[in-house]
Write a structure and sequence with these properties.
Layout: E1 2-6, E2 9-13, H1 32-36, H2 82-89, H3 104-116, H4 126-143, H5 151-169, H6 172-185, H7 192-212, H8 234-250, E3 255-262, E4 266-273, H9 280-283, H10 286-293, E5 299-301, E6 310-315, H11 324-327, H12 331-334, E7 341-347, E8 352-356, E9 363-366, H13 373-387, E10 393-398, H14 422-446, H15 451-457, E11 464-469, H16 472-478, H17 480-493, E12 499-505, H18 515-518, E13 523-526, H19 532-539, E14 552-556, E15 563-567, H20 572-583, H21 594-605, H22 611-621, E16 623-624, H23 626-633, H24 637-650, E17 662-663, H25 668-680
Parallel strand pairs: 9-12, 9-13, 10-11, 11-12
Antiparallel strand pairs: 1-2, 3-4, 4-6, 5-6, 7-8, 7-15, 13-14, 14-15, 16-17
Helix pairs in contact: 2-3, 3-4, 4-5, 8-10, 14-17, 14-21, 16-17, 21-24, 22-25, 23-24
Length: 681
């Protein structure tokens, strides 16, 4: 054996050839013409592709002697005319008939009853046994034929079975009348049950009668009579007048007090300026006047609208309470013809201030804690309840603080119970937008312009709707974008539809009362605030920082100047008396509940195809980062923000925490259940 050495490797070259394990083959080399010919080496289904067995089944064509045009689409039963279908099935189109029954036997029983025109009989023990026989007869005829039988044999066998089935079904109508007497013997105890059901049903039939009974508006006698407090402020007013004149004289300003008006909270001194004296010289002395009068706050109105004098408003030493019971007795409130009239309070001149929400048409109420916002809202709501029935007025009350509007729960005027959940409140505002669009569609079909014209021509009048939000700041923190969009659309278009919005907040800052919200709310009610910046946010001018609280407010109605008035006070006992009087007449008829609103809110958010995928991604990451979602799914910021809002509504991620990523609130097991629910929706 020869051993060769190449680069440190030893190679042994055998002299003898080893035997081949397989026979030697020479493969055929295809020519160019043979290469062009395509031969399928595997069956490929046009429907299922290659996911089938590697077998080719060629159908064997068998020519039948039967005329196929006379058979049904399945080529099994003879084609029936419409008369035959009606005679057999009771309808010319039995394939569209609704099948009722929990199982096959009940469905067949129902089909037989429809064929023979019978009503559903009382349940007996013999019927299930009889109903099984026709169901068992059909499989026996089918199983009796071999699989390789011809089509003609199948048709003949089927026709024979149909004839036998018709003969078996003929005696059934004779049996059913015999079962009627037997059923009459069984129900001696059953007539009592229907009698009890009828008795139970009687109150339900009487309830509409109660609703149709004439509705009584709450009377004035429900309110407690406020005590008369007599004061003699003449001495204090003269002393204040002398202090103002002395201050002008000390600073050399040619002005003096001409007259004064004693109001319930403040007294307005009217100052007449000498010829050539600037108004700015009086306003510059505001701090000196405040010091000389020993007042906690004063407000200078220069000049008084409609007069040639400057007003100096000084708080009274003894404040008077403006009771709501005294305002509703005035003719200006009792004889008001405008709908949605409310009594707000009394101004400095002693006049009762009454405004119509329809003329507002939307209102913004703002002020710091304890300034009188909630009392003002109660005054507005009680005024509406005193003048409108549930058929004329519907309300949606949103109370995130959970305690301010609880007295109005279960009123027939409410479309939903008092909403305390922020997500439900967001859904309620969205529903209000949809209701507005629905009403405008009705106006367009009736060719009218507003709710007044529609109620004149329609058979059923539409009620006015008032939406009250007691704390806007909580809604803006949780769902700022959705709430802002809903409020903006309502304030822009809802006036003619009879939908009015009243928004209250104790934080009058620009992040809560945004420009898009404030621009379409012309009516503003400002209570005492901390700084002139907050007053500028509410009224677009200073002045609210000079108020002294406890109902002291500035009212700016659409198209009118600011007026200072003392808000009316209504006690909790009076509110309970009015609401209980209404509740005793009518029961609440809610259109939806808070849970339904929350579920609807979740359903409305779940409209993105990437929602489930993003939910899995967020749970895997452990946090919901907007930038990661945008980069991973290659989507825009608006779409990512909408998806994250949907996940927040579903309870998968937490609330917005500024620039930080949102927290994930569920674990894997809870996430799977939520994702399954999202997929089901």
């Amino acid at each position: 054996m020869l051993v060769l050495r190449f680069k440190r490797k030893f190679v042994k070259t055998p002299f003898e050839r080893t035997p081949d394990e397989s026979p030697f083959k020479i493969f055929h080399i295809l020519t160019e013409e043979e290469k062009r010919v395509y031969k399928k080496d595997r069956f490929v289904s046009p429907i299922f592709g290659t996911h089938v067995k590697d077998e080719v089944v060629v159908p064997i064509m068998e020519k039948s002697k039967t005329n196929m045009d006379k058979l049904d689409p399945f080529r099994i039963k003879p084609k029936m005319t419409n008369e035959e279908r009606i005679k057999k099935y009771g309808t010319a189109y039995p394939e569209f008939d609704v099948v009722s029954g929990k199982n096959l036997s009940e469905a067949l029983e129902d089909q037989d009853r429809k064929i023979h025109g019978e009503k559903s009989p009382a349940p007996t023990w013999s019927e299930p046994e009889e109903a099984v026989s026709p169901a068992e007869a059909t499989p026996e005829t089918d199983l009796g034929m071999p699989k390789d039988a011809s089509i003609d044999d199948h048709i003949q066998k089927f026709m024979a079975s149909e004839d036998g089935a018709e003969q078996s079904l003929d005696p059934e109508p004779e049996i059913t009348p015999e079962e009627d007497p037997s059923n009459e013997t069984v129900p001696p105890a059953e007539p009592e049950a229907p009698a009890e059901e009828e008795r139970d049903a009687m109150p339900q039939e009487e309830e509409p009668a109660k609703k149709q009974a004439p509705y009584e508006l709450p009377p004035e006698s429900l309110f407690s009579i406020p005590p008369d407090v007599k004061t003699d402020p003449k001495e204090s007013l003269e002393r204040q007048k002398h202090a103002i004149d002395q201050t002008f004289e000390a600073f050399g300003v040619g002005a003096h007090v001409h007259s004064y008006t004693y109001g319930p909270t403040v007294t307005r001194f009217e100052v007449v300026l000498d010829s050539g004296v600037r108004i700015s010289k009086v306003t510059q002395l505001q701090d000196n006047l405040k010091m000389n009068l020993s007042a906690e706050q004063i407000r200078i109105e220069a000049p008084i609208p409609g007069k040639s004098t400057v007003g100096i408003e000084v708080p009274n030493e003894v404040r008077q309470t403006v009771h709501f019971a005294n305002l509703i007795k005035k003719d200006v409130f009792k004889n008001a013809e405008d709908p949605l009239t409310v009594a707000l309070g009394r101004d400095i001149d002693g006049f009762t201030i009454v405004e119509s929400i329809k003329a507002m048409p939307h209102g913004l109420i703002a002020g710091q804690t304890g300034s009188g916002k909630s009392v003002n809202i109660n005054t507005i709501l009680v005024s509406l309840l005193l003048k409108h029935s549930p058929e004329e007025l519907k309300m949606i009350l949103i109370d995130p603080k959970m305690v301010e509007l609880s007295s109005y729960d279960e009123l027939p005027h409410l479309l939903t119970p008092v909403i305390t959940n922020v997500k439900a409140a967001t859904a309620a505002l969205k529903w209000s937008v949809d209701e507005m669009e629905r009403r405008y569609q009705m106006f367009s079909e009736s060719k009218v312009r507003d709710i007044v014209g529609y109620n004149d021509v329609a058979s059923k009048a539409l009620p006015y709707m008032v939406i009250v939000v007691d704390e806007l700041a909580d809604l803006m923190v949780v769902a700022s974008q959705a709430v802002e969009e809903s409020i903006m659309r309502l304030t822009q278009k809802a006036r003619a539809a009879g939908i009015h919005l009243l928004v209250a907040t104790q934080r009058p800052s620009t992040d809560v009362i945004k420009g898009t919200i404030k621009s379409n709310i012309p009516t503003r009610i400002a209570f005492s605030v901390a700084s002139h910046i907050d007053s500028q946010t509410i009224l677009d001018s200073a002045g609210a920082e000079k108020l002294i609280g406890k109902g002291d407010m500035l009212l700016m109605v659409n198209g009118k100047n600011k007026r200072r008035l003392q808000g009316a006070f209504v006690s909790d006992e009076d509110i309970d008396a009015v609401t209980n009087f209404i509740k005793n007449q009518r029961t609440p008829d809610y259109l939806f509940t808070a849970d339904e609103l929350i579920e609807k809110a979740i359903n409305t958010f779940q409209n993105d195809e990437l929602l489930v995928d993003v939910a899995k991604f967020v749970i895997g990451q452990g946090e919901a980062s907007m930038n990661r979602i945008i980069k991973n799914f290659n989507i825009g910021f608006n779409r990512a923000q909408s998806i994250v809002s949907s996940l927040e509504a579903a309870g998968i991620v937490g609330e917005n925490v500024g620039s930080k990523a949102r927290d994930v609130l569920v674990d894997e097991t809870e996430a799977e259940a939520i994702i399954a629910k999202l997929r089901g929706i």
